[in-house]
Amino acid sequence: MIRISNIKVPIDNKEDLLDIIAKYMHINKDKIITYKINKKSIDARKKSNFCYVYEFDVLVTQEKNLLKKSKFFKKTPDEKYVFPISGNNKLKQRPIIIGAGPAGLFCAYMLAINGYKPIIYERGKCIEERIKDVEMFWQNGLLNPNSNVQFGEGGAGTFSDGKLNTLVKDKNFRMKKVFEIFTECGAPAEIMYDNKPHIGTDKLRNVVINLRNKIIEYGGEIHFNSFCQDIHVLKNKIVSVIINNQEIKTDILVLAIGHSARETFKMLQKKNISMESKPFAVGIRIVHPQKMIDENQYPICYTWLPKSSYKLTYTNVDHRGIYSFCMCPGGYVVDASSNLGYLVINGMSNYKRDSGFANSALIVTVNKNDFGNDTLAGLNYIENIEQKAYKLAKGKIPIQNCLDYINNITSKNIKLQDFVRGKTTFIDINSIFPNYINEALKNGINYFNTKIPNFKNGIILAPETRTSSPIRIIRDDNLESNIKGIFPCGEGSGYAGGITTSAIDGIKVSEEIAKIYSNML
User: Fold this and answer.
1) Distances from the Cα of 260 to the Cα of 101, 319, 379, 469, angstroms
2) Which residue from 309, 280, 108, 89 is spatially nearest to 194, judged by alpha carbons?
3) Is 156 helix (H, G, I), strand (E, B) or coil?
4) H-type helices in 2-122, by residue range?
5) Cβ atoms of 503 and 493 closer than 8 Å
6) Residue 131 in contact with residue 205, Cβ under 8 Å?
7) Which residues on adjacent β-strands are paired with residue 48?
8) Quick check: 71 pLDDT over 90?
9) Number of C-beta neighbours around residue 351 at 10 A
10) In the β-sheet with 237-243, what is the strand arrangement from edge to edge?
11) What are the φ and ψ backbone dihedral angles of 221, each rounded to 5 degrees?
12) pLDDT digits 0-9 by tens, 344-393
């Protein structure tokens, strides 16, 4: 196939893509056997040049002659992912994976399809049951600490926008493999080429169920309502885990525990697994009408265009970074709490992104100068904010007009339209955060208002604290911890940030296991 790039097509184009490709290549379209879109993005910088930008892979007759004709034609490179050849050491016990988020599921999938018969233990429930628990919590405030927005099959990303875009360099084509697996499990086909791919929480749920079934089909197991209470180590090597008071022997333990597994972090510290605190960010969610964001981001707001997003950054006078994060076009702000007596929020969008409201986290970086050097200091910092928010708002989501937040005034009259999942209450959000966080957020909001007019007329909710793990579990070049046989993995272990990078890290860990051990077929 021939790859052609930077093909600009007017945003209101009605011409068939086959005709456009034929014109660009200066050939009759009957010479084109087939084509596929490799990349698609929108260039919205100028009204006069508002366009889609494509990259195509085209199968044509007389390919060699065409490649010689133009320097703009290139042979489509081989971008196939290759799993490593299995090692020689024999596994006495099946690999155990703790956590059924993206990292755990993709690690299990790759091990299962290659004959390693992994077993996943997930503290939460399967998707079907988890959805019921989350909906009940949003409606009446009854929290299940083991089945909520953070815990359960699919991980925290299941109740998000299902965004898949990442800046990671993919020279081994692991990301492409992740997207292929997602589409095989029912994700929209356009994630394979869209510049800002997303699945949407409604579709992602079915995708996760299909992924579960594939893992089982290939010899894996998944056990829900299964909490890892302890690990047993002998001569600096993992020998077993305690799940629901039952000891289970293993040679391999993958810790895909997620960023909210606080009890597990504390247990691991007692077991002398090498860990360190790491920087993260905390802040708020801000909500605007989606129409306002579209009008700012697009020179012409055609109805068929995808809901637009934004990315904003600012550096405060104290050198703290303030930036938008996990922006959810056409989405909802949700109560994402997972611990009794603690409060945290997140953003979520369905596939169609049709709520009518855009929301984004606005977060401020914090580091050891703010929370101290102890391993769990960052975790304690987050817990203090979440506990304070819960007490001040009596378990409900704090909500405030942005201008009132800037002026330290508790709001009294917000029209509560359908952009929140969970109960809300009016308090002054300034009271939740340290002064340096509030100052940085306000300076950032004022600056962002120069980029998006009326930005500071939004509505804010808080606190957003689970942006990334506050802890990193140290691992070596082979992705193994200081205790042999334990492989820290994914966002919770400090090596990923979102669905795609977590899934990629799960694949990387599966590769390292395969390099050491032969499969169990």
Assistant:
1) 12, 28, 9, 8
2) 309
3) helix
4) 17-25, 63-69, 102-113
5) no
6) yes
7) none
8) no
9) 17
10) 228-234, 237-243, 246-249
11) -130, 150
12) 999 999 999 999 999 999 999 999 999 999 999 999 999 999 999 999 99
Tens-digit pLDDT profile for residues 310-334: 999 999 999 999 999 999 999 999 9
Query: Of the CATH numbers 2.40.370.10, 2.40.30.170, 3.30.565.10, 3.50.50.60, which one belongs to the domain with range 96-276+479-516?
Result: 3.50.50.60
- Asked if residues 398 and 425 have their Cβ atoms less than 8 Å apart, the reply is yes
Q: Which residue has the tokens 């994060």?
A: 325
| Dist. CA 148–CA 266, nearest whole Å | 21
Asked if residue 264 lies in contact with residue 472, where contact means CB atoms within 8 angstroms, the answer is no
Give the integer Cα–Cα distance in Å for 70 and 64. 11
pTM of the model: 0.95
Q: Domain 2-75 falls in which CATH fold?
A: Alpha-Beta Plaits (3.30.70)
CA distance 103 to 500: 9
The reply to whether domains 2-75 and 96-276+479-516 share a CATH topology is no
Q: DSSP assignment of 387-436, as one string?
A: HHHHHHHTTSEEEEEHHHHHTT---------S-EES-EEE--GGGTS-HH
Domain boundaries, given as residue ranges, for the chain: 2-75, 96-276+479-516, 279-464
Cα–Cα distance measured from residue 94 to residue 220, given in angstroms and rounded to the nearest whole number = 9
